[in-house]
Amino acid sequence: MQPGEFTMARAESRIVLAVIAVFVALGGIASSIRGLLDRARLLFISGRMRW
Questions:
Q1: In angstroms, how far is the first alpha carbon of the chain from the final one?
Q2: How many Å is the Cα radius of gyration of the chain?
């Protein structure tokens, strides 16, 4: 085993975890925006939303 191999493996795992965290965060943001738009649409249809 080379001296830098262990640190490269740790760095790669951190990169993978960071990428997963970014996609989870983006999914959460997208679902919250979608929920807000659905709520606004329902309020508009029911006539309770004022512009």
A1: 67
A2: 22
